[in-house]
């Protein structure tokens, strides 16, 4: 692939214009993950800006997870990074940190994401993905019996991500990891507060989700996920958010014929 050319930019907030040009080349497909950008000197010459301007733009792109800098690499410039869910996770965490998202917001979003993921996973019934879910479930069981809290949390996250992965929708997979991280940042891991009894209850509930996906029953799989969130997280919401969450639950439950909405 030929190296894309860059145009001179205006001097006002020039580093933003440099950043915008690079992002545009990536969005247009002229730069792919793994491609190397021109060196600092080449970018300065093509864009008509100073090295500090290019460096500031590169630091911004690195912070956003767009590129990986190679400061001691003599062969050229930064590397275009393969996108992942880290940016989404950071964005949700920042919104929580600055009180722009409440626990109720996160519970509602998680309900939509996880019930949809379970529904699609059961509908698709991809055996290789189901095998991955089962392995993740076994890892959770092992962590409950003999692992540390950190090992249990990591295994539990991987279980939910493996279900979302089985949905075939990449955004659901990324959102599952991000919303769980954001909720943990706000309230910690709810299952740890109840000790081993709560962990074992979650293992049982996970098993019901796995069985529904194996059976190819989307409504049941979705219903199991909905009940888990309502039983464990709805009681933690603020009083003024319960009504909205209950309405959302009723909306989700309307698409699952196996169970009525849970009374609040």
- For the residues shown, what is the average pLDDT? 87
**CATH architecture descriptor of the largest domain:** Up-down Bundle
Distance between the termini: 58 Å
Which range best describes the helical content: under 10%, 10-25%, 25-40%, 40-55%, 55-70% or over 70%? 55-70%
Q: What name goes with the CATH superfamily of the largest domain? A: GntR ligand-binding domain-like
Low-confidence regions = none
What's the total number of strands?
Answer: 2
Biggest sheet record: 2 strands, antiparallel
Number of helices: 12
Please give a handful of descriptors for the protein shown.
WH_DNA-bd_sf, Arc Repressor Mutant, subunit A, Tscrpt_reg_HTH_GntR, mainly alpha, single chain, transcription, WH-like_DNA-bd_sf, 69% helix, 2 domains, 264 residues
Task: Provide a quick synopsis of the model.
It contains twelve helices and two strands.
Write up this protein:
- Residues 12-83 form the HTH gntR-type domain.
- With 264 residues, this protein is mainly alpha-helical.
- It has 2 domains: 14-41 and 49-80, Orthogonal Bundle (Arc Repressor Mutant, subunit A), CATH 1.10.10; 86-254, Four Helix Bundle (Hemerythrin (Met), subunit A) (Up-down Bundle).
- The protein contains 12 helices and 2 strands; from the N terminus they run αααββααααααααα.
- The chain has helices spanning 14-27, 40-47, 51-63, 86-97, 103-124, 127-146, 149-166, 170-187, 190-193, 195-215, 218-233, 239-254, and strands at residues 67-68, 79-80.
- The mean pLDDT is 87.
